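For consistency, the fold was encoded as tokens, as this record shows:
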Amino acid sequence: MGLSGYVSEIALVLQTIHHLFGIEAAVFDTGAVLIAGSEKYLEIKGTTVHKPSIAEVIENDEVTVLCPGKMESCIGCRFSSNCPATLELLKRITNEGVPVGVLSFSAFSEDEHDEIITRIDYFKQIIADFSNLLATVLKNAKSNAFTNDKNQFSAISSLFPDGLLTTDVDGNILDINDAALNILSGVCLKSIRDFLPAELSEEVMSGRHVVNQAVEIRQGLTVALSSAPVFSPLGDSGGFAVRLTAKQTVISPASKVSEYEKMRGGGAHMESVRRRMGKIVNSPSSVFISGETGTGKGVLARSVHYEGNRRDKPFIIINCANIPESLFESELFGYEAGAFTGALKTGKSGKMELAEGGTLFLDEISEMPMSMQAKLLSVLQDRQFEHVGGTKNIALNTRIISASNANIQQRIEEDRFRADLFYRLNVISIEVLPLRDRMEDLPELLDAFLSKYNYRLHAAVKGFDERVIQQFNRYSWPGNIRQLENIVEYCINMADGDIVQLLDLPPHFLKEVEAEPLPALKEAEGGVIRDLLNKYGWDSRGKAQVAQTLGISVRTLYRKIDQSRLEK
């Protein structure tokens, strides 16, 4: 029987991987057919995979993909040059010595990438151990050696240096590995209530995901605790999995904004942003960050959180443009058991609840559906909310940071965004200027990205040829900091020597630089746009007519208005 005959067993192993280690994982058979995958993996990468990538793992046993979408085996993949993964570890699965499939670990964000890359040997050992465990599951499935969660957990937990234990729904300990016994030496081991503070015990048993929560077990012993509910393949709650990690091995909350992700720039504008940020990091007031795509709004939001007194609490992100309207309410507020068809039998906490005591970052807030805007406004006014299908009021103790690259005032004029909600969100406003308006920050940004990708790509590039710098200074950077970072990453991949040359720049970038109008032409273009706006009007309808007359999109027109700094 192939892997397809053991979907439930494999899915339970992947669920355990995700709950205990926060890793998105998937299993494919030798024909590159998906057998099972974690929820986020399926959402982002779907159910199909590039066959040559699987064939490479089957042949070589293990593969580490540091630049997804840019490897030789990625040629022909639908994600080529645009892979949503930031790093992948892949390991062959065998059954009695015969390859039967591939186990994949994937990172989909810079945080996940950095978590794995900084402990790459540790995670390589984890994927190897789980590959062996899957082989054992397949071997023993017929004899029902893994028919219950306890046996499953015992086999898994013995493989890892971290302390792992499982409890029933009341917090009573069902199983515990040797590492946890050593950590908890001298402590009563009947229930998590016997060694955890009452508040933390209740949080674990509420089913919320606890991530790297520092807790003092006894005097002189502090560990980081992570926990998550464990479900059966049918979705029934079977209790909770708890992971205990020696405190010194966990990234401290204050360092979660890594050296590579700090706000960069020594120019007047960024100094002003940092000064304002320093005044609000401990404030519970709502913060609204505006700026074009790629200017670093998310980095600023993280900095506000992790440099303030909420740093030990969660920083939860919702990208309002990526959530279907039908799911928005349950994603934001959570839901009770049986609230709708397909709901988990245990219910689910929403992002607002998961951010308790910390920060909820609503990115691309301008894309929030109008129906949700009214509900969010009510929550911000009353400082409480309910689960979908629930009747219990939950107090809101979360700072709200929102961001948008769109012109919110224009959205309000077009009746696409509520003015009263914007007033609630825009208590403290911070604008991040586009890169073209703060080119004095370019040298520092280049140095930071050079260091970042030398580390990630195991390169030793020392700098940029002067002609490359000239091209950078001439360009208008419509994609801002994100575009600059992508181009630096490309250059380090392409560089033959220790200095980036013109030939190492992306061809499309060189073409765009050549197409850049000279300053005099830009000024003339601004004059033409101003004349047309005076003719057709400066409101949204007039701007639409101007865009049509010029043969450009309304979005492009707004960008050109901003670039030319045109005002009525």
Observations:
- The first strand starts at residue 24 and ends at 29.
